[in-house]
Amino acid sequence: MTTVRLNPPDNVVSFDTDALVVGVHSGPDGLRAAPGAEGLDQALGGKLAETLNAMGVKGKPGETAKVPTFGALAAPLLVVVGLGDAPEGDYDIEALRRAAGVATRSLAGTARAALALPSASAEQAGALALGGLLGAYSFTAYRTGEQPAPLAELTVLSDAEGAEAAVERASTVAASVSLVRDLVNTPPSGLWPARFAEIAEQTAAEVGLSVEVLDETALKEGGYGGIVAVGQGSANPPRLVRLAYSHPEAAKTVAFVGKGITFDSGGLSIKPTSGMDWMKSDMGGAGAVFGALVAIARLGLKVNAVGYLCLAENMPSGTAQRPSDVFTSFAGKTVEVLDTDAEGRLVLIDGIARAGQDNPDLIVDVATLTGAQIVALGWRTAGVMANDDALREEVVAIAGEQGEAAWGMPLPEELRKGLDSPVADIANLHPERFGGMLTAGLFLKEFVPDGVKWAHIDTAGPAFNKGEPHGYTPKGGTGAMTRTLIGIAERYTAG
Ligand code: BES
Ligand code: MN
Ligand code: ZN
Fold first, then answer.
1. Mean pLDDT of the chain
2. Which residues pair with residue 258 across a beta bridge?
3. Relative to the CA of 314, which ligand 1 atom is closest?
4. pLDDT tens digits for 44-95?
């Protein structure tokens, strides 16, 4: 893990680092150095703009150029990142996170880097730290042979008031997001429900979270019919993990519930071969809940927070649940399972119903729930549904502030009828394919404890980047929604 520190930007020319990162703006009159890059052109003999022009640098977001400094600066390497057109007012915070991430992502094998990017406020300095740390992420646990050394030290050059605390927070948040990315990237042979529970127990002890793990016997005895039904087909039995953090001055309790399918084969309603490997990411929701609880504890927020990880492996076998089977959920309602591949909602309803026992002010669940989310909103934008309009809009707004794209979605009442079952209280599959993200949300809504505000985040696309890296987002596990949950906990913090 990269460590991050803060340094006043007194003299970037003589600052001792391996790679100095500065920004350039595009514009009608050509490139313009961004704040932080002052004095560099002079130190480089007035040749910087000329050199960048010759290299074809336009200053567009996502662009980087590496320039050797030949001894003119203390840093042997200058990394120039595009910041787009100079803003009229304040810098866009997400643009700064991304620029810092683009820079560190290009620096694999570099030990020390310093960001001399716009950082006039604590918020900007924090954004640079977070983007820089997240961009430096790599997952090499399963590679043999020599790997490029990860960035060991990242310095943010800023003297903004409050920057220290902002950089500190960024470092805690980045550690949690990286933890979630690691879990998502770990193959299912390395991460099954009991293993995930063990990791949660160990980490909980380190950061001071209380933890309770229900194994398959306890789940059966406790009436967690959904988690048992989904997990019964696997040689790796299911778990429910409850993580809890409390603060003596807290005024509110937030409860988070995560879908934690460590591998989703579809069960007997088996998935096609193509893309099944992707389903190692089907625990991304539980990952986000875990990462958020860890960060909340490390930050010492004045809030009570509970997190449920609904962990199961969805496999076909002689003991697997069959399409048409009926189980009794933790809430007491019976569910007919028409499609064993609609398993996420089955584990979530037990977690959501159990969360009611914590008397939370709100419940937020996070799940890689439907392919329909990707059809509706694409790869990068999560869908947010809720039983309360204000809460839905609040979650969408918080996600946006944290730099995680999310969009409000409806739960149209007329679609509920399609979930009627001829034999049980409700069926897990809607006969209509259309609106699949919404019908999954409507199914969950039936199990929310009476009078409790609830929001549901479908993060099927955002949890895993199948495309090329961009900004501070790598290929593979992204850690999506971890920051949104942390942001929600911060919003419900006392004082
Ligand atoms: N884990 C999948 C959803 C998913 C798909 C996540 C693609 C990430 C990427 C979920 O368990 C699933 O299989 N959903 C089905 C539901 C259907 C059977 C109602 C789907 O979306 O096709
Ligand atoms: Mn499935
Ligand atoms: Zn699934």
1. 97
2. 309, 366
3. 11
4. 999 998 999 999 999 999 999 999 999 999 999 999 999 999 999 999 999 9
Lookup result for tokens 């990162």: 21
Overall average pLDDT of the 232-241 stretch = 99
Ligand 1 in reach of 336 Cβ (< 6 A): no
The ligand with the least distance to the CA atom of 184 is 1
DSSP 291-354: HHHHHHHHHT-SSEEEEEEEEEEE--STTS--TTEEEE-TTS-EEEES-TT--HHHHHHHHHHH
Reading the block at residue 106, the tokens are 């290009």
In single-letter form, the type of residue at position 73 comes to: L
pTM more than 0.85:
yes
Nearest CA to ligand 1 atom 7: 371
Beta strands in 342-442 (DSSP E): 362-367, 382-386, 406-408, 426-427
Sheet hosting strand 325-328, strand order edge to edge: 325-328, 334-337, 426-427
CA distance 63 to 55: 12
Q: Long-range contacts made by residues 413-420, C-beta under 8 angstroms, separation at least 24? A: 415/439, 415/442, 416/442, 419/443, 419/446
Among the bound ligands, name the one nearest to the CA of residue 277. 1
Which atom of ligand 1 is nearest the CA belonging to 341? 13
**Whether residue 345 lies in the annotated active site:** yes
The CA 414 to ligand 3 mean position distance, Å, reads 25
Structure tokens at 166: 């902002």
Radius of gyration of the chain (CA): 24
Q: Whose CA is nearest to atom 19 of ligand 1?
A: 342
Ligand 1 nearest-atom number relative to CA 261? 1
Residue 470 Cα to ligand 3 midpoint, Å, equals 25
The verdict on whether 60 is a catalytic residue reads: no
Active-site residue, selected from the candidate residues 5, 32, 220, 271: 271
247 C-alpha vs ligand 3 centroid, how far in Å?
34
**Which tokens sit at 354?**
């159990």
User: pLDDT tens digit string along 366-397?
Assistant: 999 999 999 999 999 999 999 999 999 999 99
Cα(315) to ligand 2 centroid in Å equals 10
Question: Which residues are CB-contacts of 142 (< 8 A; sequence separation ≥ 6)?
Answer: 187, 190
